[in-house]
Design brief:
The chain is mainly alpha-helical. 81% of the residues lie in helices and 4% in strands. It is built from ten helices and two strands. A hairpin with a 2-residue loop joins strand 1 and strand 2. The chain is elongated and about 90 Å long. The two termini are 39 Å apart. The model has no long low-confidence stretch (mean pLDDT 80).
């Protein structure tokens, strides 16, 4: 009965996670955030990409049952090999950070902001590389796909977070880097120093420091709970051994 209740609670939590992820994706992809971030405020554009890369992906992964993933990869060996390669922590970190750095280069940022189709494709890239980045942390993939201990997850998170913090800090303390000329609608948007500083702070503080502290705290809490569960199992096993020994002693008498 207890096992059924726990299973039901897990299923409910997964459904809630998927619904929250869907809401965040809809907010990020559609108006008013997409139009406002693309044509009016650069900081809104930054919030959009933070939602797609750091907020929605872990919720999506947490909403999927590991058993379903294992069955899917058993049926699709080619995709399983691709996922095994992409889930290598070094590869996942490189892809995630390369995507961020590439699209913040002023020339490519101009290309993205002046073309709605490219902008949407980049949004999809943020979501995809976010899923790749979070996969080793969430532990959704099968056990043979580069499993990480909690200690290794902390190291992976720390070194993966540094490039994003650096670019955020650079944008915060730099003179305005971006000016966008757009034909649809026809307008010329100049990113102000305040707008760029706010965008940099969002990436640096929210996307970097806050994420590092939050996820590290969650991982540490999980480690503490695992240690507590392990200690309880050892105590139970010891108690059972003592009970068996007492029963054996009573029988001998």
């Amino acid at each position: 009965m207890q096992a059924q209740t726990e299973k039901k609670d897990v299923s409910t939590a997964r459904i809630v996670a998927l619904i929250l992820a869907l809401v965040l994706v809809i907010i990020a992809f559609f108006i008013p955030m997409d139009i406002f971030g693309m044509y009016h405020m650069f900081s809104v554009h930054m919030i959009q990409h933070l939602l797609l890369s750091l907020a929605a992906p872990p919720l999506i992964l947490l909403g999927i049952a590991p058993e379903s993933v294992a069955r899917f990869f058993e049926q699709h060996r080619t995709l399983a090999r691709s996922a095994s390669f992409l889930s290598i922590p070094f590869v996942a970190s490189i892809l995630f950070n390369a995507n961020i750095w590439i699209w913040h280069a002023p020339v490519l940022m101009q290309v993205m902001m002046s073309n709605a189709l490219i902008h949407n494709l980049v949004n999809l890239l943020y979501l995809l590389t976010g899923l790749i980045f979070w996969a080793p942390l969430v532990g959704l993939l099968p056990a043979d796909m580069h499993p990480l201990t909690i200690g290794k997850k902390l190291v992976y998170l720390f070194f993966s977070d540094m490039p994003m913090m650096l670019i955020g800090a650079g944008m915060t303390f730099s003179a305005p880097l971006y000016t966008f000329t757009m034909t649809n609608p026809s307008m010329h948007m100049v990113v102000t120093a305040e707008d760029q500083q706010l965008a940099g702070l969002l990436m640096w503080v929210v996307g970097g420091v806050f994420l590092l502290v939050l996820v590290s705290s969650i991982l540490f809490l999980r480690w503490m709970l695992q240690q507590e569960k392990k200690q309880q199992e050892e105590d139970l096993e010891l108690a059972q051994e003592e009970e068996m020994e007492n029963e054996y002693t009573s029988t001998r008498k």
